[in-house]
Amino acid sequence: MKEQLVEIKQKIEQQINQIQDLNDLQLLRSSALGKKSELQGLMIHLKDLPNDEKPMVGKLINETKQALELIFDERKGVLEEKALNEKLEKEQVDVTLPGLKLVTGSTHLLTQVQEDIEQFFIGLGYEIKDGPEVESDHYNFEMLNLEKDHPARAMQDSFYIDVNRLLRTHTSPVQARTMLESEGKNIKIICPGKVYRRDDDDQTHSHQFMQIEGLVIGESVSFADLKGTLLAVIRHFFGSERTIRLRPSYFPFTEPSVEVDVFSEDGRFIEVLGAGMVHPNVLKMGGYDPQKVQGFAFGIGIERLAILKYAVDDIRQFYTNDVRFLNQFKGGLEK
């Protein structure tokens, strides 16, 4: 029996050493050590041996199986290492080759302008407030001194959803909501966002555009504060040497009201925004006593700023998603 086990072990070991494939090695392991193997057959015939020989023969069979298991495992390790080296050789990467150039996007020009203005006002201590684009007539008009049938409503042809709801025509409703929420406390906010008016789209008009409005309310707020704020933001955006001109105007929610012009590089004054001191009626509806506090407000058109600074000849360029136009501003805003 011992000679037979040695012969089986040597035969299987020779077969193992000749195998070059992991699948073949697994098949050989199954046939050499499985239920139908010669070794398993010898275990079955143990019952036919004398009782005094069974322990010794059983021990020899188990030792042979353990030895073969070890040989199989060693061969498996060799073949796995060989397969890995072949794979690494086949998939070798030349690290000196140039990498792929990934095309990256950037924020839209209007978003860049908005964020630039936001950061400027945050530096002055302003908070950023937001509100719904679908507004009630109450907040969009009535809280801003525009009662029903007020003739000034004709200045803003609106998109009505029903008799009481519309797409906001300015971000001023955010100011009205903030005044009510503040319960008479001082306010220093800007309100950026999209607004909607029933304009025919052409080179200079769009039914949708973007605004940044500002509101400051306090006990010692003056018209001089308003002018200084407007001059500071214009010089921040257009350059430190720019001058502005304030012209009397009319807005139902401010009194006095002004329109602001910027002196352009070609020697002309160009209108960029409207502003004024908050109307006493608006202060009262917002929960403030106009005898004790004053405020100023302003509204800046984001598209207007971008058009003037970057000489954009058509407002529709901002909304047609032409990458030839957008790629000009991937590097961010110039200072």
UniProtKB/TrEMBL annotation:
<dbReference type="GO" id="GO:0005524">
    <property type="term" value="F:ATP binding"/>
</dbReference>
<dbReference type="GO" id="GO:0005737">
    <property type="term" value="C:cytoplasm"/>
</dbReference>
<dbReference type="InterPro" id="IPR045864">
    <property type="entry name" value="aa-tRNA-synth_II/BPL/LPL"/>
</dbReference>
<keyword id="KW-0479">Metal-binding</keyword>
<dbReference type="GO" id="GO:0006432">
    <property type="term" value="P:phenylalanyl-tRNA aminoacylation"/>
</dbReference>
<dbReference type="InterPro" id="IPR004188">
    <property type="entry name" value="Phe-tRNA_ligase_II_N"/>
</dbReference>
<keyword id="KW-0963">Cytoplasm</keyword>
<protein>
    <recommendedName>
        <fullName>Phenylalanine--tRNA ligase alpha subunit</fullName>
        <ecNumber>6.1.1.20</ecNumber>
    </recommendedName>
</protein>
<comment type="subunit">
    <text>Tetramer of two alpha and two beta subunits.</text>
</comment>
<keyword id="KW-0648">Protein biosynthesis</keyword>
<keyword id="KW-0460">Magnesium</keyword>
<keyword id="KW-0067">ATP-binding</keyword>
<feature type="binding site">
    <location>
        <position position="255"/>
    </location>
    <ligand>
        <name>Mg(2+)</name>
    </ligand>
</feature>
<keyword id="KW-0547">Nucleotide-binding</keyword>
<dbReference type="Pfam" id="PF01409">
    <property type="entry name" value="tRNA-synt_2d"/>
</dbReference>
<dbReference type="InterPro" id="IPR002319">
    <property type="entry name" value="Phenylalanyl-tRNA_Synthase"/>
</dbReference>
<dbReference type="GO" id="GO:0000287">
    <property type="term" value="F:magnesium ion binding"/>
</dbReference>
<keyword id="KW-0030">Aminoacyl-tRNA synthetase</keyword>
<dbReference type="Pfam" id="PF02912">
    <property type="entry name" value="Phe_tRNA-synt_N"/>
</dbReference>
<feature type="domain" description="Aminoacyl-transfer RNA synthetases class-II family profile">
    <location>
        <begin position="109"/>
        <end position="308"/>
    </location>
</feature>
<dbReference type="GO" id="GO:0004826">
    <property type="term" value="F:phenylalanine-tRNA ligase activity"/>
</dbReference>
<dbReference type="InterPro" id="IPR022911">
    <property type="entry name" value="Phe_tRNA_ligase_alpha1_bac"/>
</dbReference>
<comment type="similarity">
    <text>Belongs to the class-II aminoacyl-tRNA synthetase family. Phe-tRNA synthetase alpha subunit type 1 subfamily.</text>
</comment>
<dbReference type="GO" id="GO:0000049">
    <property type="term" value="F:tRNA binding"/>
</dbReference>
<keyword id="KW-0436">Ligase</keyword>
<dbReference type="InterPro" id="IPR010978">
    <property type="entry name" value="tRNA-bd_arm"/>
</dbReference>
<dbReference type="InterPro" id="IPR004529">
    <property type="entry name" value="Phe-tRNA-synth_IIc_asu"/>
</dbReference>
<dbReference type="InterPro" id="IPR006195">
    <property type="entry name" value="aa-tRNA-synth_II"/>
</dbReference>
